[in-house]
Amino acid sequence: METESLVETLEAAGLSPYQATAYVALLDLGTASATDVAEASGVPAPRIYDVLRSLEELEYIETYEEGSLRARAHSPSGVLDDLRGRASRLEAAAEEVEDRWEQPELEAGGASIVTRFRTVIERAETFIEEATHQILLSTTTANLQRLAPALRAATERGVSVRVSVHTENGESVPAPDLFDDICREARHRPLPAPFVALADRRQASFAHHPDSYDQYGVLVNDRTHTYVFYWYFLTCLWEPWETVYDAAGDGLPIEYLDVRHLVRDLRELDWERDPVRLRVEGHDTATGEECTVEGTVVDVRVPFASDASTGFELAGQVTVDLDVDGEHVSVGGWGAIVEDVEGTRLTVVDAPGLE
């Protein structure tokens, strides 16, 4: 490093211009009188004494009398520790500035646009770690492996996790053991797709595929906006694709991702003759509080009849009515308002026609 650059760097580290030039001059001189330091550094002679004493207070040098005031540089170890400490603080400050720019706090009802995928996946990991009910994830195999510890922990605490893995042309179908202990069900989409992570129907983390023309990410902490990503996940990333892993296997109980999936199966059963018992975890629409109810299906209400097999023709109000110990309880899907319960996890626990 040139002398001028070293002086500028020392100034950036906190020394005054006179302190920096005097110290660099003394490093070159080793031991010198105050007059010689002033001459070598260009510090005005009347100022050199104050400058040297201030450097001594900082423990950069020491002064002594030998006919006149003389100075010598200390062993640089202390100076190096000081400079490295300053450098560490500057580096930490730089990282904090970057984090605050890339990862704005998501207040309730908030949404943010970010520019780097790292921000998107780190926030997705946080959403997964905080989830209590449901996680829906669209990702590559590599990013799934990165998120696997958080997904495994979520599964262990009872969160319902479903994963849609997308692969490029020529990539093989993911092996089932990739999903062991990290999700309830996985599907494979053999086409590129965006990264999408949804947690508890409130938080969303989205990023375009790396080859997309648009390169930005979206972070959401809001039920209404997350609902849009939810339907995109169901219709484009989940429903059309083949199941490659199912932790539940055959038989009961059967857990449904959406009330529309449940209704699709119920419409094929003679539930009026062979009673279907359903457990619903969700929220009381009157109070917003979490609740769990279990009862027998007594009615299925859909906006119109259809022979379509996907179940997504039921885009309007879809309601399942239950008899819960003699009390009528109506159950709707995401965003239910007129029903008694918004179902977030629907599980058939007894159904002769599904056994």
Describe what this molecule looks like in 3D:
By secondary structure, the protein is an alpha+beta fold. It folds into three domains: 3-78, Winged helix-like DNA-binding domain superfamily/Winged helix DNA-binding domain (Arc Repressor Mutant, subunit A, Orthogonal Bundle); 110-246, Endonuclease Chain A (Endonuclease, Chain A); 254-354, SH3 type barrels (Roll). The protein is 35% helix and 28% strand. The strands form three sheets. Strands 4-10-9-8-5-6-7-11 form an eight-stranded mixed β-sheet, with helices on both faces. Helix 2 (17-29) crosses helix 3 (34-41). The mean pLDDT is 85.
Quick structural gist:
The protein is an alpha+beta fold and 355 residues long. The protein has three domains: 76 residues, Orthogonal Bundle (Arc Repressor Mutant, subunit A); 137 residues, Endonuclease, Chain A, CATH 3.30.870.10; 101 residues, SH3 type barrels (Roll), CATH 2.30.30.690. The protein has nine helices and 17 strands.
- Category from helices, strands and their pairing: alpha+beta
Q: Give the averaged pLDDT, no decimals.
A: 85
Rg measurement, Å: 33 Å
| Structural domain tally | 3
Assigned CATH class of the largest domain: Alpha Beta
Low-pLDDT stretches: none
Number of strands: 17
Which superfamily, in CATH terms, is the homologous superfamily of the largest domain? Endonuclease Chain A
Shape: elongated
Helix percent band:
25-40%
Largest β-sheet summary? 8 strands, mixed
CATH topology of the largest domain: Endonuclease, Chain A
The CATH architecture of the largest domain is 2-Layer Sandwich
Give the topology string: H per helix, E per strand: HHEHHEEHEHEHEEEEEHEEHEEEEE
Distance between the termini: 78 Å
Main β-sheet, spatial strand arrangement: 4-10-9-8-5-6-7-11
- Counted by DSSP, the helix tally is 9
